[in-house]
Specification:
Blueprint: E1 2-9, H1 15-32, E2 36-45, E3 50-57, H2 60-68, H3 71-79, E4 89-93, E5 99-103, E6 109-118, E7 133-140, H4 146-163, E8 167-175, E9 181-188, H5 191-199, H6 202-210, H7 216-228, E10 239-250
Antiparallel strand pairs: 1-3, 1-6, 2-3, 2-10, 4-5, 6-8, 7-9, 7-10, 8-9
Length: 252
């Protein structure tokens, strides 16, 4: 299975219109695409204008065919009126050698991941928005430790999450093009269940199980924190993001 994340910045005034567009235009188009299993629109917490279009595919080639077919570009062009204007400006020299500022168009960020581990191969992605909640943890793993990390996720983390109240789905996905970058995606019945999981200490217990496989940069940061009793931020830190599910549909 293959996962595709499309990061979007929406104009706060057009969020409701975009949700309607997603349900009435995007869903029907994706349902026609061979191999598309699920599509969902999720909203970042606490950032009110940050959204992700999340799709699952049977195979990577089918997701790539969707992009090459022109359907994705057509949908994106239709979505542009709902997107925030770019805040990025660039300086350039005009033909008559005068300095001018040009506003750059901000294209959405697309991230692609293969699903390395999931609850069961036969799991059906039947996600209803209501109060459901998505939790995404980004990780970087040491070279030579990837196989061990995947094994721990499969044999320890998945069984543990299956016993946690409210945890509906769990996926470990590996970045396409960056084999040491992973994200763990969990889908919860409601935000309170995910909060309870973190507060209970279970999340930290699971992090401790895989800590030795994390990047050397992260381990060095941890040793600094221990030696100096102070927090140190690095680009390899475990990053935890939270999202509300605004809309979702299974095409199985």
């Amino acid at each position: 299975m293959f996962m595709r994340l499309l990061q979007l910045q929406l104009d706060p005034a057009h969020v409701d219109q975009f949700k309607k567009f997603y349900e009435t235009v995007v869903f029907p188009q994706l349902q026609k695409m061979q191999g598309c299993l699920f599509a969902g629109l999720i909203k970042s917490k606490p950032e009110e204008n940050e959204f992700i279009s999340l799709t699952f595919w049977q195979e990577q080639a089918q997701a790539e065919n969707y992009e090459k077919s022109g359907v994705f570009q057509k949908l994106f062009d239709q979505a542009k009126p709902f997107l925030s204007e770019s805040a990025e400006w660039k300086m350039q020299l005009s033909k008559d050698m005068k300095l001018e500022y040009v506003q750059s168009s901000e294209e959405p960020k697309i991230k692609k991941y293969t699903v390395a581990v999931q609850n069961k191969e036969t799991d059906e992605l039947k996600i209803q928005p209501s109060e459901m909640f998505v939790r995404i943890v980004s990780l970087k793993i040491q070279e030579g430790k990837v196989e061990e990390f995947e094994k721990i996720y499969s044999s320890v983390i998945i069984p543990t999450l299956k016993k946690v109240r409210g945890c509906r789905y769990a996926f470990l996905t590996k970045s396409v093009g960056e084999p040491n970058e992973f994200i763990s995606v969990t889908v919860w019945d409601k935000k309170e269940d995910a909060d309870e999981y973190e507060a209970s200490g279970k999340y930290q217990e699971l992090v401790d199980k895989i800590k030795h496989t994390l990047s050397q940069f992260y381990l060095w940061k941890m040793s600094l924190e221990k030696d100096y009793s102070a927090k140190v931020a690095t680009t390899d830190d475990l990053k935890v993001d939270h999202y509300d599910i605004i809309s979702g549909k299974s095409f199985l």
